[in-house]
C-alpha cells in the first residue's frame, strides 16, 4: 500500500531541490555571465549619406553565447550562441567549466525529479531516497560512525563539487581573445578588465550554496518522514499523512 507522507521539512527539501536545479540550468544557458564595457554600434548611413551613431549599450557574454547590438537590425539586441561546436567555446577553461556545470546540473535535475516521488516512496532497494539524493547533492559521511578510522571526516561532494570546480575554472578563461573583445586588453585570468559580473554568475553561485543546503535538509526530511508520529498514522491505516 502506498502511503503519501507530506511534512514541512520534506516539502521544503523538495522545493529547494527544484529551485537549485532550475537556477543552475537557467544560469548555464544565460548569456549574462560577463557584462562588457559600454560601446556604440558601428555608424549607420542615413538616406542622404550622413552617418548617425547608434545608442551606447553593454554587450554580454556567456559561456557559449553572447548578446550584441547590430546597427542594421531594427529589433536591436541579437542574442545567440557564438560557439556552434564544443571546440569553439572561448577557452579550454570554459570548456571544462561547461563539462563540470553540465554534470552537476544533470545530477541536480535527477534529484529534483526523484524528490517529487518521495511523498510516496521513501526508500529504494532498502536505501533511503533522502540519503541517496543528499549524497548526490553533496553531503558528508557521518563521522560519528567512523569508529575504526582515525582520520578526519572525508566529505564526498558530487553535484556540489562539480559546480564548485566549474565556477573556479570559469574566471581562468578571462584571458582568452573572445573575452578581451568584450572586456578590453586588460582582461586576464581572474581579472575581468572593463567587464562586470552579470546576474548569471551570481545565480550559479547562489544555486551552488543552495545545493549544499539541500543536502543538509535531505537528512532532516528523512527524520521527519520516519518519525514516531508518522508510524502511528500508518498503524492507524491512514494512506495520506500530513504533518507540520
What would your notes on this structure say?
The chain has 244 residues and is an alpha+beta fold. The chain has a domain of 149 residues. Helices cover 45% and strands 13% of the residues. It has seven helices and eleven strands. It has a five-stranded antiparallel beta sheet.
* Number of H- or I-type helical stretches: 7
| Regions with little confidence, pLDDT below 50 for 5+ residues | 43-52, 139-156
The count of DSSP E runs of length 2 or more, i.e. the number of strands, is 11
Report on the biggest sheet.
5 strands, antiparallel
User: Mean of the pLDDT scores?
Assistant: 76
Biggest sheet: strands side by side, in what order?
Answer: 7-6-5-2-10
Overall spatial form: elongated
Distance between the termini: 23 Å
Secondary-structure element order, N to C: EHEEEEEEHEEHHHEHHE
Q: What share of residues are in beta strands?
A: 5-15%
The structure class reads alpha+beta
Give the helix level as a range of percent.
40-55%
As an assembly, this protein is single chain
List keywords for this structure.
elongated, LHFPL, transmembrane, Lipoma HMGIC fusion partner-like 2 protein, 7 helices, membrane, five-stranded antiparallel beta sheet, single chain, alpha+beta, 244 residues, two-stranded parallel sheet, 45% helix, transmembrane helix
Helix and strand arrangement:
Elements: E1 4-7, H1 8-29, E2 34-35, E3 44-45, E4 51-52, E5 60-61, E6 65-69, E7 77-81, H2 92-116, E8 123-124, E9 127-128, H3 129-137, H4 159-169, H5 177-183, E10 196-197, H6 199-225, H7 228-235, E11 240-243
Parallel strand pairs: 1-11
Antiparallel strand pairs: 2-5, 2-10, 3-4, 5-6, 6-7, 8-9
Helix pairs in contact: 1-2, 1-6, 2-3, 2-4, 3-6, 4-6
Amino acid at each position: 500500500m502506498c502511503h503519501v507522507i507530506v511534512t514541512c521539512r520534506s516539502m521544503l527539501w523538495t522545493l529547494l531541490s527544484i529551485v537549485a536545479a532550475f537556477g543552475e540550468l537557467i544560469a548555464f544557458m544565460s548569456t549574462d555571465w560577463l557584462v562588457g564595457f559600454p560601446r556604440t554600434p558601428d555608424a549607420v548611413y542615413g538616406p542622404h549619406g550622413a552617418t548617425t551613431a547608434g545608442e551606447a549599450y553593454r554587450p554580454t557574454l556567456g559561456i557559449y553565447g553572447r548578446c550584441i547590438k547590430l546597427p542594421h537590425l531594427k529589433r536591436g539586441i541579437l542574442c545567440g550562441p557564438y560557439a556552434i561546436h564544443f571546440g569553439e567555446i572561448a577557452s579550454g577553461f570554459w570548456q571544462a567549466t561547461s563539462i563540470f556545470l553540465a554534470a552537476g546540473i544533470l545530477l541536480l535535475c535527477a534529484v529534483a525529479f526523484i524528490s517529487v516521488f518521495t511523498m510516496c516512496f521513501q526508500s529504494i532497494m532498502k536505501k533511503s531516497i533522502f540519503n541517496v539524493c543528499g549524497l548526490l547533492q553533496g553531503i558528508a559521511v557521518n563521522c560519528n560512525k567512523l569508529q575504526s578510522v582515525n582520520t578526519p571526516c572525508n566529505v564526498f561532494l558530487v553535484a556540489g563539487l562539480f559546480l564548485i570546480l566549474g565556477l573556479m575554472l570559469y574566471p581562468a578563461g578571462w584571458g582568452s581573445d573572445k573575452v578581451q573583445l568584450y572586456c578590453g586588453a586588460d582582461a586576464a585570468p581572474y581579472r575581468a578588465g572593463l567587464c562586470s559580473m552579470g546576474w548569471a554568475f551570481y545565480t550559479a553561485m547562489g544555486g551552488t550554496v543552495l545545493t549544499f543546503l539541500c543536502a543538509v535538509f535531505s537528512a532532516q526530511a528523512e527524520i521527519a518522514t520516519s518519525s514516531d508520529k508518522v508510524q502511528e498514522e500508518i498503524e492507524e491505516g491512514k494512506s495520506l499523512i500530513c504533518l507540520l
